[in-house]
Amino acid sequence: MKIYTKNEIEQAIDVPFLMHEIENGLRLASEGKAISAPVSFMHFESPKGDVHIKSGAFIDGEMYVVKIASGFYENPLLGLPSSNGAMLLFSQKTGKLIAILLDEGRLTDIRTGIAGAIAAKYLAPSTITKIGIIGTGTQAKEQLFHLQHVTPCRNVLVWGRDQLKAKKFALDPYLKAFNITISQNIEEITQNCNLIVTTTPSSKPLLFGHQLRPGTHITAIGADDIGKQELDETVFGCADLIVVDSLSQCASYGDLSHAKNVDLSKVIELGKLIQEHIERKPSWITVVDLTGIGVEDLQVAKALYQILRVK
């Protein structure tokens, strides 16, 4: 059994390879070939934080993963990243522990960023005028960073509740490929951006249907837990196409769970959309609700293990 540190993992990250593997995983999951245990949550108030436990396997796979990932939102005040955790990779033939990836939450951040990029790859307008980012935390950075792999657009508007954090976001060297301007309100983003990503831990809707212009795509990342919500149900009401990573998860605690009047039979999973090559029409409003699924953790853990064990 091998233990890999965050530093070793960082040096092995190959974004195009990880994106390819996660896309394959999403396809297989939508074909009913994936297995996962129910997602578990723990919530803390002092300090405020949450822990997610997810798992993933394929029916005829060689390995399965169990992932523990946490978010403690006051950590930046202590000079610490808000994310932490580890991934455990097991043999699906014997149950033997093969590797521990002590990624400190890094792989969760990356695979979520890549999932957002995959959503944009297949659903964003063919010409993106400007990217809108709602949120200024770790995942906001990951979402924007990974978009450079699927779009040539580099002009960005960012909005956050804390203007100081927004300024730090705009100047972050990690995002040096982009030209980032701070927005004073969300309406400025909806009026100027046709690709919008929401990445906050909000418990109340931030984006509403009446704010959206035809041709806009929204990828919603933040509502990955019970009690979280970024999109008002009117966003889904005006959407021409609604896509999710997991219908069962999103109906239980994603933004979609707050949209009581949506016919779930008209909602499609991202893996199926990729497989069926469904293309958006230029005037469509499209919405992708991502809650993060275990097969993504499996694919990223397997891919990194494949790279690390030959180093």
Portion in helices: 25-40%
The CATH superfamily of the largest domain turns out to be NAD(P)-binding Rossmann-like Domain
What value does the average pLDDT take? 95
Q: What is Rg?
A: 18 Å
Choose one word for the global shape: globular
Broad structural category: alpha/beta
- Class of the largest domain, according to the CATH hierarchy? Alpha Beta
Number of helices: 10
Strand order of the largest sheet: 10-9-8-11-12-15-13-14
Terminal CA distance: 16 Å
Could you characterize the architecture of this molecule?
This protein is of the alpha/beta class and 311 residues long. It has two domains: 2-107 and 295-308, 2-Layer Sandwich (ornithine cyclodeaminase, domain 1); 114-292, NAD(P)-binding Rossmann-like Domain (Rossmann fold). 32% of the residues lie in helices and 25% in strands. The chain has ten helices and 15 strands. The protein has helices at 6-12, 15-30, 106-123, 138-147, 163-170, 186-192, 233-237, 247-253, 270-276, 294-308; strands at 2-4, 34-35, 40-45, 48-58, 63-72, 83-91, 97-101, 131-134, 155-159, 179-182, 195-198, 217-220, 241-244, 268-269, 286-289. The strands form two sheets. The chain has an eight-stranded parallel beta sheet with strand order 10-9-8-11-12-15-13-14, with helices on both faces. It is globular, with a radius of gyration of 18 Å.
